[in-house]
Specification:
By secondary structure, this protein is α/β, with parallel strands linked by helices. The chain is 32% helix and 20% strand. It is elongated, with a radius of gyration of 23 Å.
């Protein structure tokens, strides 16, 4: 039974907290669903019972022999945070390649180059008048550096429509520009239903103004053209936690230095500015590689016995931001994928369709990983049966989002029903989730789905310095690994293929 709820307007998370764009949901016409191909009730019952038995064996294997937490500890502690193009990210790709091979799963790297790797340098900031106080600051990924220590006045801009920018022309050069009022954290939902909504709450957040994301980006370009000392944004988190974003999809320096302040310091600056002039100084010593840098995804597979050219893909992104250790975003999803491969290989089963495991890079920084896979496997896209992505932390998976793929609902429900029995899941969700590596697949018409997870500290850890190994909850993330493996198995054994869309369900940005 599909969980019917009114789809939300999927828009960009306030202040670009995810590098991947969010797009508007569409209502599903009742006639969009296709009937399940004619199998007998006995055949459908036999499939369900066989899948329930297999799914339980997968869950038991993970519970008894999981190496997920051991692998996650190594990833986060010995390798650490993993910016796309960085030596740490490449080390993680090399290490996961070996781990798949250690488990007896055939694997290889698929590598492209990005224009520049980016390295965070020393970052300092200080209010110099009317009070003197040091404050913390962290640049956006791929932000250009300041020209040494920059000094200047702080200013708040409020631009809700294009004409509003006129009042700021020729006034922002050398200034520290605050992008609007502090975020009102009192309006945060104290008990979000899922981890995604904890950081991108319904109606999915939208930058201040009438033009949404495109208008917001235009305002940033207009401000950058005025040559400010830096553009400053509110991290929007409690308890002095930072946030992070960036990517700048071309992997080139931003047009102006851009940085986050903690919510508390941003609020302080804003209130000081309401009382009178404020001056400050900051130094952002970021650096870029002189040459292009490699960016690899790890691809592993268990070959299908009857339909080897058809793929079922499960995955998560291996890259991360660099303020923490990249544990919940998304070491957990990546290591759950690795554990799913270990479990299926340990059971020694031969799936009918090829099961492919992908650890993406660049989900946080430009989306290069999913694009790489789709480019290198362009001829195989019509034979990708389905994709499932795990990308919202350590919390238990309690549903899978249908992602408006209404034509797949009948078969997807058959695939999902055994999982409900074994993993105690809620009905399929039709809430519209966007902002991860499944979206490029959706745009190609591939049935691509998203794990819906319990919050489990995700609001705090997401893109912040507290995204660390100690936040992982072993039982819950191991459940996610078993579910990934079981879903992939169920899809691989389904007599029919899930239908592709003639037009991708996620509109282009």
């Amino acid at each position: 039974m599909i969980q019917l709820r009114r789809p939300f307007l999927a828009q960009l998370f306030l202040l670009l907290f995810s590098s991947v764009l969010l797009v508007q949901s569409q209502e599903a016409p009742p006639q969009a669903a296709e009937p399940v191909p004619q199998r007998t009730a006995e055949q459908r019952t036999a499939y369900r019972r066989a899948m329930e038995a297999a799914d339980q064996k997968i869950a038991d294997e993970v519970k008894a022999h999981s190496e997920l937490m051991k692998n996650l500890e190594y990833l986060t502690t010995q390798i650490g945070p993993r910016l796309t193009g960085s030596p740490q990210m490449q080390a993680a790709s090399d290490w996961t390649l070996k781990r798949f091979q250690d488990y007896g799963v055939a694997a290889h790297l698929e590598t492209v180059e990005i224009a520049h790797a980016w390295t965070r340098g020393a970052e300092t900031a200080e209010i110099t008048s009317p009070i003197q106080q040091r404050i913390g600051i962290h640049a956006f990924g791929w932000s250009k550096a300041t020209d040494g220590e920059a000094t200047g006045s702080a200013m708040v801009v409020s631009i809700k429509k294009p004409a509003d920018f006129e009042q700021y022309k020729a006034k922002l050069k050398g200034a520290f520009v605050l992008m609007g009022k502090p975020r009102d954290l009192s309006r945060e939902d104290p008990n979000p239903e899922n981890a995604y909504d904890a950081v991108i709450p319904p109606p999915r957040g939208v930058p201040e103004g009438e033009e949404g994301f495109r208008g917001y980006m235009q305002r940033l370009r207009q401000i950058a053209a005025e040559q400010p000392a830096a553009i400053l944004l509110d991290s929007g988190k409690t308890d002095s936690l930072y946030n992070m974003t960036g990517g700048f999809r071309t992997y080139q320096p931003s047009e102006a230095p851009m940085a986050f302040l903690t919510h508390e310091d941003y609020d302080l600056l804003y209130r000081l500015l309401q009382a009178g002039p404020v001056t400050m100084k900051a130094n952002l010593a970021e650096t870029f590689s002189e040459k292009p840098a490699p960016a690899s995804i790890t691809v592993a597979e268990i070959k299908g016995s009857e339909h080897p050219d058809e793929r079922v893909i499960i995955g998560g992104h291996l890259d991360s931001w660099d303020l923490g250790q990249g544990a919940l975003d998304n070491g957990t999803g990546a290591m759950a994928t690795l554990e799913a491969a270990r479990a299926l290989q340990a059971l020694g089963w031969k799936p009918k369709r090829t099961i492919t495991f992908v650890l993406f890079t660049g989900e946080e920084e430009g989306g290069i990983g999913a694009a790489t896979f789709l480019t290198k496997h362009a001829n195989e896209i019509p034979q990708i049966d389905a994709v499932l992505i795990h990308d919202t932390g350590t919390g238990k998976v309690f549903s899978i989002a249908l992602e408006d793929l209404w034509q797949t609902a009948p078969l997807m429900q058959e695939i999902y029903q055994p999982l409900q029995e074994v993993f105690d899941l809620k009905p399929l969700s039709n809430e519209y989730f966007r902002g991860s590596d499944h979206v490029p697949f959706l745009r190609k018409g591939v049935p691509a789905y998203f794990c819906v997870q319990l919050p489990a500290h995700y609001r705090e850890a997401h893109h912040s310095q507290t995204d660390t190994f100690d936040k992982a909850i072993p039982d819950q993330i191991n459940q996610g690994a078993a579910l990934l493996a079981a879903w992939a198995w169920n899809v691989s054994e389904m007599p029919e293929s899930l239908p592709h869309s003639t037009v991708g369900s996620a509109p282009e940005e």
